[in-house]
Amino acid sequence: MNLEIAPTASPDIEPGPPDENAIEIARVVDRAIRHSGFLDFKSLSIVTGKHAWFLWVDIYVLNHDGNLMDASTIAAVAALMNTALPKVELDPAGNILKIDRSVKSPLKLNTEKLPLTITHVKIGNFLLVDPTREEEDLSDGVYITGIAGGNVVAIQKVTGAFTKDEVSNIINNSVNQYVKLRGIIMNAWQIHRRTLNCEVSPQRFLHYSGLQTIITG
Q: Between 115 and which of 17, 32, 144, 214 could a Cys-Cys bridge form, CB atoms 3.0 to 4.6 Å apart?
């Protein structure tokens, strides 16, 4: 998992390699996906102990108007749902003879465990979900919850201090927000599968869900 933020995405971004914030986002998104059970990693094996597919997810941010964490998770999940692997032909000894890119199979995914992150910020005594960049700048704390299938699979307290009751409220609200957001994504995915019989970019898939503004600002 790799994330880069274009210098033109925000006045706060400087040219150069990914900063600590970009690295943290990539790690949390990676953790949420890995621990969710969404992707069957064993299905990436071609020949046990010999050949396997290696997946890279590169996220390039063009416009940052807040809540990059949740937007990045949605983008990564959409990309995986749109990924197909070429057919591999093997000889009797398990050596690769041919990779046929004209025949592809989608990744083996368990959409019941689709992972999402839900970001809350604390401003005074209030908790806000899905913050804008201005709200993030004004916040006293940022708390991120990774949810998959209704279960918490990742937690990241970025800044600030939270009481036990606040953490409980954040987790409960994150589960509720997850149900709504997953429903939107799955509805878009069903429309995508019904209307198109060819590969479609994650951007087109997200267009069906109305989530494109979350990705591009």
A: 32
